[in-house]
Amino acid sequence: MENLGRLIRSLRKERKLSQQELAKQYGMSRSTISGIENNTISEIGLRKVEAILSGFGYELTAVPRQSKRPTLDSLKKANFHG
Fold it and tell me: Mind telling me which InterPro entries this protein's record contains (predicted)?
Protein backbone atom coordinates (compact mmCIF):
# COMPACT_ATOMS: atom_id res chain seq x y z
CA MET A 1 0.00 0.00 0.00
CA GLU A 2 2.87 2.34 0.71
CA ASN A 3 3.99 2.22 -2.93
CA LEU A 4 0.42 2.76 -4.12
CA GLY A 5 0.09 5.79 -1.87
CA ARG A 6 3.27 7.32 -3.24
CA LEU A 7 2.13 6.62 -6.80
CA ILE A 8 -1.27 8.22 -6.23
CA ARG A 9 0.34 11.29 -4.63
CA SER A 10 2.75 11.62 -7.54
CA LEU A 11 0.00 11.26 -10.16
CA ARG A 12 -2.23 13.74 -8.31
CA LYS A 13 0.55 16.33 -8.13
CA GLU A 14 1.47 15.83 -11.81
CA ARG A 15 -2.11 16.77 -12.67
CA LYS A 16 -2.02 19.68 -10.21
CA LEU A 17 -4.96 18.36 -8.19
CA SER A 18 -5.39 19.01 -4.49
CA GLN A 19 -6.32 16.18 -2.16
CA GLN A 20 -9.72 17.86 -1.78
CA GLU A 21 -10.28 17.94 -5.55
CA LEU A 22 -9.34 14.28 -5.94
CA ALA A 23 -11.51 13.32 -2.98
CA LYS A 24 -14.52 15.15 -4.44
CA GLN A 25 -14.01 13.46 -7.81
CA TYR A 26 -14.32 10.01 -6.19
CA GLY A 27 -16.81 10.77 -3.44
CA MET A 28 -14.28 10.43 -0.64
CA SER A 29 -13.08 12.69 2.12
CA ARG A 30 -9.82 14.61 1.90
CA SER A 31 -8.62 12.71 4.97
CA THR A 32 -9.17 9.40 3.13
CA ILE A 33 -6.99 10.59 0.24
CA SER A 34 -4.37 11.77 2.73
CA GLY A 35 -4.49 8.43 4.52
CA ILE A 36 -4.02 6.53 1.25
CA GLU A 37 -1.13 8.73 0.17
CA ASN A 38 0.62 8.55 3.56
CA ASN A 39 -0.23 4.90 4.30
CA THR A 40 -1.85 5.91 7.58
CA ILE A 41 -5.36 4.67 6.90
CA SER A 42 -6.12 1.41 8.69
CA GLU A 43 -8.60 0.05 6.14
CA ILE A 44 -9.22 1.17 2.59
CA GLY A 45 -11.50 -0.49 0.10
CA LEU A 46 -9.72 -1.98 -2.87
CA ARG A 47 -12.39 -0.58 -5.17
CA LYS A 48 -11.58 2.96 -4.03
CA VAL A 49 -7.88 2.56 -4.79
CA GLU A 50 -8.70 0.84 -8.08
CA ALA A 51 -11.05 3.69 -9.08
CA ILE A 52 -8.41 6.35 -8.38
CA LEU A 53 -5.72 4.44 -10.29
CA SER A 54 -8.09 3.82 -13.19
CA GLY A 55 -8.87 7.53 -13.34
CA PHE A 56 -5.15 8.18 -13.79
CA GLY A 57 -4.93 5.55 -16.53
CA TYR A 58 -3.42 2.81 -14.36
CA GLU A 59 -4.67 -0.66 -13.53
CA LEU A 60 -4.32 -2.49 -10.24
CA THR A 61 -2.72 -5.91 -10.70
CA ALA A 62 -1.08 -8.54 -8.55
CA VAL A 63 2.25 -10.09 -9.43
CA PRO A 64 4.29 -12.76 -7.68
CA ARG A 65 6.96 -11.45 -5.35
CA GLN A 66 10.52 -11.72 -6.47
CA SER A 67 12.00 -12.89 -3.21
CA LYS A 68 15.73 -12.28 -2.84
CA ARG A 69 15.80 -14.17 0.42
CA PRO A 70 15.88 -17.96 0.34
CA THR A 71 12.74 -19.69 1.49
CA LEU A 72 12.77 -22.25 4.28
CA ASP A 73 12.07 -24.98 1.72
CA SER A 74 15.00 -23.93 -0.48
CA LEU A 75 17.33 -23.87 2.54
CA LYS A 76 16.19 -27.34 3.59
CA LYS A 77 16.76 -28.68 0.08
CA ALA A 78 20.21 -27.04 -0.15
CA ASN A 79 21.26 -28.53 3.21
CA PHE A 80 19.82 -31.94 2.34
CA HIS A 81 21.67 -32.11 -0.98
CA GLY A 82 24.77 -30.24 0.15
Answer: Cro/C1-type_HTH, Lambda_DNA-bd_dom_sf, TransReg_Diox_bact_type
pTM for the structure as a whole: 0.71
Residue 63 identity (one-letter amino acid) = V
Show Cβ contacts of residue 74 under 8 Å, excluding neighbours closer than 6 positions: none
d(CA 70, CA 82): 15
Element (DSSP H or E) covering residue 31 = helix 30-38
* Cα–Cα separations (whole angstroms), residue 28 to 20, 23, 24, 70: 9, 5, 6, 41
CATH number corresponding to 1-82: 1.10.260.40
